[in-house]
Amino acid sequence: MSQNTLPDHECPHRCAWADSAPDFPHYHDNEWGFPVGDDQRLFEKLCLETFQSGLSWRTILSKRENFRSAFAQFDFHKVAQFGEQEIAELLDNGGIVRNKRKILAVINNAKRALEMVDQEGSLATFIWRYEPDENTLPPPETQTTCAESIALSKELKKRGWQFVGPTTLYAFMQSMGLINDHAEHCFMREEVDRARKGFVRP
């Protein structure tokens, strides 16, 4: 993960979306697109993408620490044990998005994550099988799905996961480094490319 601390005026060539909100530049420069092989971080992002459905990423990012606190830092071993009391507490938590269907989906997906670890060894092992071939992808910022996000969506749904549509999973792939979708002019594109080249696939 990068640790860029340059002032905004010294980084004028970000992806266009990264300058659209005050908290986006740091997220863009230090997280978005860097490859992730940690199961808990992968699960967290899948959950946050679930909550983003129909909303803006800015809304979710601004509440991310609240989500982490509410969902046991997205430790899916713990979330899988959530019952009626935890659900009631989540629905009463004004710091997160209080959507019951999404909350239940996260708890369901935690249970499915446990199954996947048992079957595949880790979430990362399974998810990184769907890394697209860079040579088959169109130019950055030109699509919202790809063949691999469609295939991953289909397989996760088959395994009982919820809120895992192809567009949601494409956004997940972008942020978790399965795809380098930084704009051609973006100063982070080469750094993310280097990180991806040095990343040991699970």
TrEMBL record:
It comes from the Bacteria. The lineage of its organism: Bacteria, Pseudomonadati, Pseudomonadota, Gammaproteobacteria, Oceanospirillales. GO terms for molecular function: DNA-3-methyladenine glycosylase activity; metal ion binding. The keyword Hydrolase applies. Pfam families: Adenine_glyco. InterPro entries: Adenine_glyco, DNA-3mA_glycosylase, DNA_glycosylase. Zn(2+) binds at C15, H28, H182, C186. It comes from Marinomonas spartinae. PANTHER family: DNA-3-METHYLADENINE GLYCOSYLASE 1 (PTHR30037), DNA-3-METHYLADENINE GLYCOSYLASE I (PTHR30037:SF4). One of its GO terms (biological process) is base-excision repair. Keywords: Glycosidase, Hydrolase, Metal-binding, Zinc. Its EC number is 3.2.2.20. This is DNA-3-methyladenine glycosylase 1.
